[in-house]
Write a structure and sequence with these properties.
It is built from 29 helices and 30 strands. The protein is an alpha/beta fold.
């Protein structure tokens, strides 16, 4: 067993459940044993060896002043890091104790401007272990003091909230931590750490006590937090923050309760599909947030992201935002001045948390002073302009500017203009701030002045040359004389060191002055740090004021950002209505319009026309059209202008999308299973006040299964859910529903076809399309000409319900693609039977006509069709095909043999890619 300093390290490590321990040893923080190897690997530190009673242990260390970036780097990688500080015992020895555990959810000093939430999740105890909710949720951002709590009904809502906040750390309650399926889903959605915490912290009594102690006894009632589950989650978060020693509880001054009634439900799938904060590839560039973000402060960017990911249903709040955006968009000079002033603002919310935790230094307090000094400038930029009577002015009026001015003045009188980073070396405060400190500084400067003039004094008094006076940690203060005159020094000089070209001496007077200056430096440092701590505590007591000012700065920045984008892109103010409608004139996709010449389109959804079936070719713009509708709805309920000539927007309670299921085979779920799960969530969650976007349903399975599911889902959404819906499909059979269901209408993306050339017009028109142009898209994708040409031939004959020739291989014998019963190169007549999903052997007629075709649409062959022999022209076509090389013929034959009705689209795409590679 290790003893000594290594033993002390291992004992402290055993007392905490942290992954890594950093222990102070003098001027360094050291890591030993396994921890040393871990940090060396993660942070590229050098390893040495520490001997302890016959054993050797790996050791790595960082200077005292440089611990924070190393700890933050470890925490960013998901580790929990305990910090043990050194203190002096009564007998003059040194000991250490753990003073802080830094975790992903409680790290304070982060370079990331995004919100950094710690979350807790609770489910009812003693119920069905397989029950899906309800759940209590709490979110705290320790870097800003924000604290929110709510309750949700089921796992889908829970995942949506977690995805929306993207917490850095999640604390699952006792019932939740045993739910492997839920935790697996959470880990799948989030990049943060899941941490097991003391189950007692989630107990109702203890949690409610923690909430009352922190926010006041009546707070839960006054803010409308009536869910015990939410209170339990909030209490657990408070206990965790306290236990880790973050020291930021004082910055958590407000408990905010929120619920489904005031927010639009935008689940995790929809957030990904609409690319709100990141694209489908996981990049921030190209997202909606990236497009509209013109904020100039970190807090403004955080708030704008929140508005987009958590749209509102409160019409009054949205009207205020739109009024402010409209005023700012119209007052370009005032808006530019506001943004110019905001560009000098620091993050007051985070600075408030730093002051309450005791980690803020003099430079952070200077940042507080400088940002508070901007409030009068912002008021001047707003007053006397068209903004004076707008909600933009009201935002600033929420700050107690008189108290802010008093605090700014106090900081201005106290702090030195260029203070050092270190808090204990002096130089933090201005002269005149404290009389006792001024006296110490005067005496210290007097002794320093004597020391600074000592060299010249000794030269004159003793006639010496080459004399300097300096100081280092080893020798203290000394007089250094060149060797050439060293034998001329007076009798009172005592030699302390001989160097190559000089000697160092000390005198009794110099030693006394050194003792005096050290005493004064220590006294000055102690007094100045004591005064600085008192100043910081007074600032921390006004953390709520700083948070108010910080939120006002953030809100002005976010509003100015939306106004800037609206002015640059010619967006318009949406007209909010209580009617169930989304009426858009010349709408555009907010992201795509910035990267291409965009073709605007109209959209009308209302009580009479509430379900649009969107048809048209692949790559023609169906998905963009539907996504832009959802994004216009979302932007309007975020309080933003929208990309359109005009828009009337009825508020919705949720936006749900199913757009191209991601392949999750690695998680054991097929593409089709994901598609059906997403559809199931929509059918269960959407209401008549929701907006639903469906981009293909049923394409992941066989044709008849897919049509059946899409047909039934359309009827259910129309008849039962009654949500405003856009449904893009390639199943033209569904377009006939417009003739039978009153709220269903058809629209299509127009195509111009001339002389065999196809042009996608990107224009949406009423009515269904008459073709899919899939073969044209295959041509655009680079599928070889022989395959495209043959596909055109097959398609034409299918449309005309004629027999299709199945061309055999010329390889003979067991050649690939050879038609059973025929010799090499034989051409057999067959008819594709849609009802059975297979090719039937043909007869001797020229045209096989379908009998008893299923009543799902025109242009399909039915079961029992007859066929006739091919005319001589088709024989000539077969002869022409004989001139193709064997591999090309084999590909064409495989294409002819493919069972279209029973082959899922994903597999078809895979086979087309394989054919293309073989032909290349």
């Amino acid at each position: 067993m290790a003893t000594g300093i290594v033993g002390e390290f291992l004992d402290l490590k055993a007392e905490t459940d942290a992954d890594v321990l950093a222990m102070q040893c003098g001027d360094f923080y050291e890591f030993f044993a396994d921890d040393a190897e871990l940090v060396a690997d993660e942070l590229d530190l050098s390893i040495s060896q520490k001997s302890s009673h016959g054993s050797s242990y790996p050791m790595a260390g960082v200077p005292l002043s440089e611990l924070t970036p190393y700890v933050n780097a470890l925490v960013e990688r998901g580790y929990r890091v305990a910090v043990a500080d050194q203190y002096e015992t009564d007998d003059g020895d040194h000991a250490r104790e753990v003073v802080r555990v830094v975790t992903p959810g409680t790290v304070l000093e982060t370079s990331d401007d995004d919100a950094r939430y710690l979350a807790a999740v609770v489910r009812e105890e003693g119920g069905d272990s397989d029950a899906d909710g309800p759940y209590g949720l709490a979110f705290a951002d320790v870097t800003t003091g924000r604290f929110l709590a709510t309750a949700v009904d089921d796992g889908g809502d829970l995942r949506a909230e977690l995805y929306r906040f993207d917490p850095a750390e999640v604390l699952p309650g006792p019932q939740v931590r045993n739910d492997d399926d839920l935790l697996g889903a959470v880990r799948e959605d989030l990049s943060g750490r899941v941490t097991a915490f003391d189950a007692e912290a989630f107990a109702t009594g203890r949690a409610r006590h923690a909430v009352r102690e922190q926010f006041g006894r009546e707070t839960t009632d006054s803010v409308g937090l009536d869910s015990d589950l939410a209170v339990r989650a909030a209490g657990a978060v408070l206990s965790y923050v306290e236990e880790t020693g973050a020291g930021v509880l004082a910055s958590m001054t407000r408990l905010t309760a929120y619920g489904a009634d005031d927010r639009v439900d935008v689940d995790a799938t929809t957030q990904r599909n609409l690319e709100i904060t990141e694209t489908m590839r996981g990049d921030a560039d190209g997202s909606l947030f990236d497009t509209v973000d013109h904020t100039v402060t970190a807090a403004g960017g955080r708030l704008l992201r929140e508005w987009l990911t958590r749209p509102r249903r409160d019409r009054e709040t949205l009207a205020d935002r739109l009024d402010a955006v409209e005023a700012l968009a119209s007052a370009a000079l005032a808006r530019d001045r506001i943004r110019e002033v905001l560009g000098d603002a620091y993050d007051l919310e985070r600075l408030a948390a730093r002051t309450t935790s005791g980690s803020a230094g003099a430079r952070e307090l200077l940042s507080v002073r400088d940002t508070l000094a901007l409030l009068p400038d912002l008021a001047d930029a707003i007053g006397g302009t068209a903004l004076a009577d707008s909600p933009a002015a009201a935002v600033l009026d929420r700050v107690d500017r008189e108290r802010a001015a008093d605090l700014r003045e106090e900081l201005a009188e106290a702090l030195a203009e260029d203070p050092p980073k270190a808090k204990t070396g002096g130089g933090l405060l201005k002269e005149g701030y404290d009389e006792e400190l001024d006296e110490l500084i005067e005496r210290h400067e007097s002794v320093k002045s004597w020391l600074d003039g000592l060299a010249e004094h000794e030269k004159r008094k003793h006639g010496l040359s080459h004399v300097t006076v300096d100081r280092n940690k080893t020798d203290g203060y000394y007089i250094q004389v060149g060797k050439s005159v060293a034998d001329q020094v007076p009798e009172g000089y005592r030699e302390i060191k001989t160097l190559k070209n000089s000697k160092r001496f000390v005198t009794d007077e110099l030693a006394e002055k050194e003792r005096e200056v050290l005493r004064l430096e220590e006294a000055r440092g102690d007094l100045e740090y004591e005064l600085f701590e008192e100043l910081r505590e007074r600032v921390a007591e006004r953390a709520e004021l700083l948070q108010d000012a910080g939120r006002a700065v953030a809100e002005l920045d976010a509003l100015a950002s939306l106004a800037t984008h609206a002015a640059r892109r010619d967006w318009t103010r949406p007209e909010l209505t209580d009617e169930r409608r989304l009426d858009v004139e010349a709408g555009r996709h907010p992201v795509v319009e910035g990267t291409t010449d965009f073709v605007p389109n109209d959209l009308r959804l209302d009580a009479e026309r509430g379900f649009l079936i969107v048809t048209g070719p692949n790559m023609s713009g169906k998905s963009t059209y539907m996504r832009q509708a959802a994004l216009i709805q979302l932007l309007a309920q975020a309080g933003s202008f929208v990309p359109a000539r005009a828009a009337e927007v009825g508020l919705v309670d949720g936006i749900y999308t199913r757009v191209g299921a991601l392949d999750e085979l690695a998680q054991g779920r097929s593409t089709f299973m994901v598609e059906m799960q997403e559809l199931s969530n929509i059918l269960h969650s959407a209401t008549e006040d929701s907006l639903v976007i469906l981009d293909e349903v049923g394409r992941g399975t066989a044709t008849y299964d897919g049509i059946s599911i899409a047909w039934a889902a359309t009827e259910y959404l129309h008849n039962e859910v009654r949500a405003r819906t856009l449904f893009a499909t390639h199943y033209h059979e569904l377009t006939t529903l417009a003739d039978h269901l009153p709220r269903v209408a058809n629209v299509h993306v127009a195509v111009d076809e001339r002389d065999g050339e196809v042009t996608f017009l990107r224009t949406v028109r009423d009515g269904p399309t008459n073709r899919s142009y899939g073969v044209h898209v295959a041509d655009l994708a680079g599928v070889p000409d022989p395959v495209v040409s043959r596909a055109d031939e097959v398609l034409d004959r299918l449309r005309e319900e004629k027999a299709i020739e199945a061309r055999g291989s010329r390889s003979g014998g067991d050649g690939a693609g050879e038609v059973p019963g025929g010799g090499a190169g034989d051409t057999r007549q067959v008819v594709f039977d849609l009802s059975s999903g297979s090719f039937a052997e043909g007869g001797d007629g020229d045209e096989g006509t379908a009998a008893d075709a299923p009543d799902l649409g025109a242009g399909r062959n039915g079961a029992g069709a007859e066929s006739k022999p091919a005319p001589s022209g088709e024989t000539a076509g077969a002869a022409e095909a004989d001139r193709l090389d064997p591999e090309t013929r084999a590909v064409i034959e495989e294409l002819s043999d493919v069972d279209v009705a029973e082959t899922p689209p994903v597999e078809l795409l895979s086979r087309v890619q394989e054919w293309q590679e073989r032909l290349d």
